Amino acid sequence: MRTQWIGGYTLVELLSGIAIISILLSLSVPPFAKSVEESRQQSNSFKLHRLLQLARSSAVSSARITTMCGSVDSAHCVRDWQSPTVIIFDDGNNNHIVDNGEKIIWQEAMPSSQWYWRGSNRSYLRFRPDGTPLEWGHFTLCPANKNIDYATQIILNFVGRPYSKNITLASLPPDEAC
11-176 is classed in which CATH architecture? Predict the structure, then answer.
């Protein structure tokens, strides 16, 4: 006589399977969270590179000084780049304010991280008509979660080209601590 096996799982087998799956999922969450934060920081870095290239190329194409800065009212530059908007504008009279007749080339909301600009002790960044910056310096991008492991610096060299480097806590000035 042959016995026929009827498919099904006991309660113990089901609970064991769920326990194993939940353990495997809990092990994969930290790498996933790390990957998300790395991706977010890389996206913010790319955004800043794009904005710098746009300001530089606008200065060259218009043959006028172009200013890039943080702004709360889309007209005046503010020292704190953590404000809601970055503006890039044609600054014909070089006064760092969007006046009548001066065109806003681009404005964009800031990402969810802290940006610090340090350059020539100014709150703005200007490009000459030949694409070189009037202020050199660096941006420090601190992630929203304040984890220094994901902090990046975007350095603007003397010809106006930005490049990135990862930073450590020891290399940050006290006023830029993430």
Answer: 3-Layer(bab) Sandwich (3.55)
